[in-house]
Amino acid sequence: MDNEGFDADEQNNLFRGVVNRYLKWPLIMSRREWDDRNLTWQNVSDSLHETGFDNGLYDIVVQRQTESSNSNIIFITEPITLFPWNIAPNVKERYVSFIVTTAKAIIENNGGTVEIDILTQDVRDIVDFEKEMFNVRTDFKDNYISSNVSIPLTIQHFQEQYDKQHPENQEKIDWYSTIKKVFASEGIAIEPSEKIIVNKITYFAKLVSLLKRTPSRTIGNYMQWTIYLHKINDLIIYSKLNRITNKTKIMCKESNLDVAICHEYVKKYLLPKTIHDIIQIITDVKSAVQNQIKHTTWMNEPTKGACIEKLAYIGHNIKSELYTNTSEVDKYHEKMNVGTTHIDTLLNLSTFKRRKMLSSLRTPSNETFSDFYTVDINLALGKNAYYSKYLNKFVIPLAYLQSSIYSGNFPFLSYGPLGFTIAHEISHAFHTFDGSGKYSNVDVQSWPQKNFEEFIKIPECFINHYNEYTFLESQHMNVSMNGNKTLKENIADSAGIAAAYYAYRNRKAKLNETEWRLLGLEQYNDDQIFFIMYAQTMCESFLPTELRHRTSDVHSANEIRVRGSLSNFPEFSAAYNCPVGTLMNPVKKCALWY
Question: What is the pTM of this model?
Answer without folding.
Answer: 0.70
